Amino acid sequence: MSLLNQLIAAVFAVLIGLVSGTLYIMSDNAKDMLLNQLESHGQDTATHLGLYLAPYIADSDTATIETTVNAIFDNGFYQKIDITDADGQSLFVTTTSPRISDNVPDWFVSMMSIDPPVMEREVSHQWRKVGKVEVQSRAGYAYEQLWKGAEQTLLWFVSLSLVAVFSLSYLIRLILRPLKGVEKQASALSERQYIEQTELPKTQELRSVVDAMNRMVKRVQRMFEEQTRHIEELRRTAYQDNLTGLANSKATEAQLSDWLDYRKEFGSGTCIYLHIPNLQHINEQLGEDRANNFLKQVGRIMAELSMQYQPNIVGRLSGADFMALIPSGNEEDTKRQISTLYDAIKTQSDFYAELSKEGPVVNIAVTQSHEDMSASQLLSEAKVAIRNAIQQNCDIYYPQAFSGSRLTSSTWQEHVASAINNQQVFLQYQPVISAQDSTIIQRELLARILNQDNAPCSALEFIPVVKELGLIEALDKAVLEQAMAYLASTNEGAALTINLSQQAIHSDNFTKWIKKAVKQNALRGRLNIEINETAVLTDVDLVAQFRSTLKQAGIGFGVDNFGIHPSGFSYLYAIQPDYIKIDGSLCKHVEDNPEDRFFVSSLITAAHSLGIKAYAERVERDTQVASLAYMNIDGTQGFLHGIPEALK
Length: 648
Hints:
This protein is an alpha/beta fold. It has helices at about 5-60, 60-75, 105-110, 140-190, 205-240, 250-265, 280-285, 290-305, 330-350, 375-390, 410-420, 460-470, 470-490, 500-505, 510-520, 535-540, 540-550, 570-575, 585, 595-610, 620-630, and strands at about 80-85, 90-95, 120-125, 130-135, 270-275, 315, 320-325, 365-370, 395, 425-435, 440-450, 455, 495-500, 525-530, 555-560, 580, 615, 635, 645.
């Protein structure tokens, strides 16, 4: 029962007690008053009868006495009249029952016992005592009068009580309104939302409670913000170039390894390696501050070019070297983008008159990565190409083998399109294993299709074609439909997890479809949806709305590849995911790299402080699991726990 209802019930109980006591006292007083009236009434009647009947009593005229007494008795106000002579012999007596009305309840009669007194009057005639008259008034009259008064009192009490209850309810609601705000604050705080009450109540006690709650909310919010700033500062120190804000050499190489060696999902890509010649000479010419500003502009231009593509990797490998990896496109478009990049940097250099105009402002080497190329091979080829560009004094250098893109046969494109459009997709899964009891927490689904030889092919072979044909949304829909059909057919196994693309989340048709689908299927606690951190940061408000829809349907929500985006992770406050999956590039050397270990541990602590579970990706060694378990990781995922299995 709510506090409001308890207060109303308590007040109502007090009112009932008060009215009951008042009613009893009033009835008791009324009883005494009626008894006095009955006594007076009986005494008056006895006096009148004694005066009138005196000669008849003296003559023992019983006929006249009877006639007279019956005439009075028949009016119904008397219970007994007894006439006796001087010797105490009864001349005439008449009695009747109390004759209590049927309208008076028995319980009231039992509670209010009334016994009217017998009033007597000695009768004298011619100065001698001739007899006595005894009169007792009827008790039924008293009961009827008492009950009528009590009934009216009760009626007024019920009427006034209803008015009082509504009035009290309104007044108490008005007084306790700040407590409703405190309740909302507490509920919001449990959901990692920070709400303050701007209007403080006038009641001193409530004002103190609201003020204390506001201080607590501010303190919790400040603690989270300070923790977030601390971890983001740590990330910048360990993985971000201090000057340009791009990923540093360590982070860039880790991301390359994650995409090319582990996930193998990047596909064909274009690697842009940029070198600033004579950086020391530039420092001498411009001075440190202006030289640093030039480097920042170069980094900004590189980042703006890379952010036009998804996925992308961009970073600063050394003081003079930058690198970006973007998906391959049309050869002419790629070369045009590279020329635009060079022109933008050259435009920036024109603001620095001290820079020597001899030779290229920067050297750019463009190489191509393929599906079967490792991260170390890509970096090796890029460094060889930039060395050639420097030696040949080229502004933009293309190796002879560069073609901008690897052409995909039309037959393969048709095969992939047919498989996706006809939902000829089969699913494999990779489990997330609990770090506490080694049970399966969830099963992340991996989409696969059959190639032209009817053999399963990896995502690396068909995902680039799917993206090229604009079918990624159709692929996500096909995977979801198969997953929901599987869940409808069985109640066994851990929850399924599906990683949706950025294109699907930003499609109105897809979001309408998924909202309808989750309402029509019993998926509560059996399905999770993941979104890549980069996709989340593209539109935090839209993702927050999408996450709210999933939460109402009981579907879990997670952020994949968490912790590597330069924008930090303060968005967790708005999104409130159920879990995060820490990017594999951060966990790769967690057991032997102090910086990685401290950073990952901080991410786990930050997630847990918000009630978010933390899982680690790309776990391949027992030593990794041991280190992560020591940091209180909730679960791990990777080839250590086995290769992907078919969902049966």
